[in-house]
Amino acid sequence: MQNLKLNFLNNLTTRTNLFFLCIVPLVFVFFSCSEKEAEERSRQDDFESVESVEHISQASSSLIISPGLEIDLGNIAEHQTIPLEFELTNSVDADLNIVDVSFNCPCGKFLTVPDNHLLKPNDSYILKLDLYAPKLPIGNFTRYININLGDDNFESITVKGNVESNFEVESGRNINLGILNDPSDEWQQKITVKGINFLAEKMKFVSKIESEYFNVNILELTPSTAELTLSSNGKLPYTNRFRAKLQLPVLEPAGSSDLVFNISGSVGTAINFKPNLIAFDKNDFAEAKTAAKQTSFGVIPQENNAEPEENEYAQRSKVLRGFFVKDTNAKLPINWFKLHEFLEFNCPAGVRVDKVLFDEGLLLNIVVDKTAFAENKRLEIIPYRDDNRYKKIRLFYRD
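Given the sequence above, the corresponding structure tokens read:
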């Protein structure tokens, strides 16, 4: 039997190694491609969420579209709303039904909607929509209006143009916080913004900027130039993938679009105590009215951690289930002293959480009174800091 177990583990090791030899090159290619695309995606994320920008190729000769199947708007300013109008004419001797129209981009809104609109021979329909430049990326763009005539019969109108920026931002509109170990870590950046095109003569931001995570100070240098001082307000959430938008409305001249910054970075890492599902039963309360169990986050010395080590078979099984096993002994980029000091818990009645600080981790001793489960067999503990809530720790009682 022992030999069978050894043979099984050896075979499992061989298969696992072959699996990684196959999958790692694919993962490398995937991430290489992703990194090249990431910068372009981040530039557009603030302006668009396009479901599909591909036009439908099936053409119909029965519908005449004026001023044509392709229009070039040329240069437009990023604050503008461009009205578009098309005349759709039935050029055949039979009735023509316009089932619907679509513009798969949040940068436009139809003002007239031909929902199952019947066109008699030689009749026309005026299709109107507004194009919102603030919801398009800066630079060249191409979008499509698709007209559904039924029976897999479509027409597409191509709308092209170039969006010109009203702001010249010294460091660009994408800001990286870098790596912070705690939400209270100081972060500050000065940015010079100059108004151009529509804002070339005057650019004045509103005096007070509302932001969940950042303080903004605006110093007017000239009528069309300002120095922005951005700083963290100490209430950032713990996450290794922080993403936020900072929106600066322009007060003057009226009608200008807002200046929007995309801010990213790393603030420690996501708070996740394990185990986060803890069971109690009658044996836990056999000798006392209270029972205590532990959960932890980070690296806890083994003699203090109630969670048993995994055997070799369990570790190999986890590899096969999840591709990669995260090193639970890896140090996390967190200021543990501050986490211990400021992390709080929303606990149900009869539940108490005691925090124990270690060099590279935090241990929680959860003390539960048996009466806590009197009305509900399932309870939740919610870790929080300031207004940020983190993954729940769930307790349940089984008979």
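Helices lie at 2-44, 312-322, 336-342. Try to locate this feature in the token string yourself.
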